[in-house]
Design brief:
Layout lengths: L2 H16 L2 H4 L4 H12 L7 E9 L2 E9 L6 H37 L18 E2 L6 H6 L3 E3 L2 E4 L7
Antiparallel strand pairs: 1-2, 3-5, 4-5
Helix pairs in contact: 1-3
């Protein structure tokens, strides 16, 4: 029997012995055998298995380096990868939304507001607007405008309308 197999069986025995006696008594022999088998196989063999403690000041840190074949079911590995992919997608989407919001706020802060500002400065006098559709003096003056130099001129309205 290998030394690691012996350690695994001792480990399983210690764990089972730590169970309260009233709980241990409720297991059937088949359940006890399955529990013992499961616990003794819990420590798998690795190609490289390096474990050591490093004391740092008043604390100790436990380092482990394991190298070996991945024996996990493919379904379990792909499930973790799917969760990781979704988390990355969520993080990218949130970062994108944050970037768009931040850029829009920056644009609002740096662009002078042109809302609620008149197109033409009201303090200055308007230049007169000529109305080409009024072709005779009578039609022009009937609407309250002035006839000058053969054109109908409007001094009341904004020429930028």
């Amino acid at each position: 029997m290998r030394r690691s197999d012996q350690r695994n069986k001792e480990f399983a025995k210690r764990i089972i012995e730590q169970l309260p006696s009233n709980v241990r008594a409720t297991f059937t022999p088949i359940q006890m055998a399955a529990l013992y088998e499961t616990l003794s196989n819990s420590q798998t063999r690795h190609l490289v298995d390096i474990r050591f403690l490093v004391p740092v000041f008043s604390r100790r840190f436990y380092f482990v380096c394991l190298i070996g074949r991945d024996r996990r079911p493919r379904q379990r590995v792909s499930l973790r990868q799917a969760v990781l992919a979704r988390l990355i997608l969520l993080a990218v989407a949130l970062a994108g939304c944050g970037a768009v919001f931040g850029l829009s706020q920056l644009y609002r802060m740096t662009t002078p507001s042109i809302r609620n500002q008149p197109v033409v400065d009201q303090g200055k006098s308007f230049h007169p607007a000529t109305l080409p559709f009024k072709r005779n003096q009578e039609a022009c003056e009937t609407d309250g405008r002035q006839w000058e130099d053969g054109q109908c001129v409007d001094y009341e309205h904004d020429p930028s309308f």
